[in-house]
Amino acid sequence: MFPAKMLARVNPSRISVPLKRTLSASVAADGTQKGRKVIFAVVTGAAAACGIGLGINMLRIEADDQLHPPHYHWSHIGLLSSLDHASIRRGYQVYKEVCSACHSLNQIAFRNLVGVSHTEEEAKALAESVNIEDGPNEDGEMFQRPGKLSDYFPQPYKNDEEARAANNGALPPDLSLMNRARHGGEDYMFSLLTGYCDPPAGVTVREGLSYNPYFTGGAIGMPQQLFDDMLEYEDGTPSTVSQMAKDVSVFIKWCTEPYFDDKKRLAMKSLLVLSFLTGIAWYYKRHKWSVLKTRKLAYKPPVK
Questions:
Q1: Are 121 and 131 in contact (CB under 8 A)?
Q2: Exposed, middle or buried, 270 (CB in 10 Å: 0-12/13-18/19+)?
């Protein structure tokens, strides 16, 4: 294949017929190869656009299959607002007495509660109240021991198959990252827990399922779990359905983002430091450019 510049310097009248044919075939092959690349790029782009469009369409279909949760004014939404730690403590109680029978928290350990919702002594007592399988021992056997702060929350089932067998084939999801795994976060959690109702006319829910408009498809395998006065809060807060749903939603929010308060605290410190550095940079810029910006240009005509 000859470069275009070299071909331009060659006199066509001095090229023999076989050489002309070779050059023509080379140029044609080069054009064909470029054409194939262009066609491949166009086809690839069209396929990617179709895939993106299909994905967006599927998301719209899935979104139309459920009711979008309303936006609630949570106390931690503000720029300088932190999570309600009293609500986190109550939410842990709701999880322990209600949700932990089916749902796990694989990424939360008892030590994570220290300084957030419980003292170190309280967290130790909570850990010691459960038995953790450990081992093997000297005889090669597994054994049970009291929990420690470093232990993670115990799982309700040994494996996924046991969980499905106990819940009519449905697998209860882990709640560690549920706040980020569902669109709407804590709004979705609260709406789902308080949104159980009878199916509307024309909608049939098969036996073993419950109707919840905030769940995809409307039919959910988890029946309603929260009822008024089903538990007694340590601080005397009335245990209504909405209160328990709010508390456990805040608790799941903290489980998903245990660094939530630290992130805002770090942002405040960073803004203070950046403000101070911005003032120094502004003064340094004024100092360095003062000579150039205050100079005077004067024209002196040449002396004849």
A1: no
A2: exposed
Share in percent of the chain as helix, strand, coil (round to 5)? 50, 5, 45
For residues 172 and 162, is the Cβ–Cβ distance under 8 A?
Answer: no
The residue whose two tokens read 């007694």 is 232
Report yes or no: 29 and 58 within 8 Å, Cβ to Cβ: no
| C-alpha neighbours within 13 Å on the C-beta side of residue 41 | 6
Q: Which two tokens stand for residue 185?
A: 């976060």
Strand partners, 219: 211
pTM: 0.73
pLDDT in tens, 149-202: 999 999 999 999 999 999 988 899 999 999 999 999 999 999 999 999 999 988
CB-hemisphere CA count at 13 Å for 299?
1
